[in-house]
Amino acid sequence: MASLEERLETTTEEYQKLQKDLSAAVENRQRLDAQLTENEQVQKEFAQLKPANTVYKLIGPVLIKQEQSEAKQNVAKRLDFIKGEIKRAETRLKDLGEKAEKAKTEIVQLQTVRQAQQQQDATAVAS
After folding, report:
1. 43: burial class by Cβ within 10 Å (0-12, 13-18, 19+)?
2. Which one-letter DSSP state was computed for residue 52?
3. CA separation for the pair 92, 89 (Å, rounded)
4. Which of 24, 51, 83, 100 could potentially form a cystine with 18 if both were Cys, beta carbons 3.0 to 4.6 Å apart?
5. What is the DSSP letter of 48?
6. What is the pLDDT of residues 22-46, one digit of tens each?
């Protein structure tokens, strides 16, 4: 019985850790979505620029003149990177979700076994 209790406790702790990790992964995914939206908006704005327009890049407190092509290229690279990170985050979310579901199922099974043992013990004591 002590072994069952230890397994139940260990599995419950593992499940709680997975839930925290899952929550952090969801927050990360949301942050990536915000970055993606922001960079897509910048890309749309760049598409409307005329060759004569000047682009500036903010570096610390200073605006530095930047070539349009270089700025567009940087945003495109950033978008590719963010999309890659989103795919990675999705895979992590799926993996964590599966692990959490597995741990949850194991907890339910262990609790069922524990209840059955407690009922047997109660029946044996009553007899």
Report:
1. middle
2. T
3. 5
4. 100
5. T
6. 999 999 999 999 999 999 999 999 9
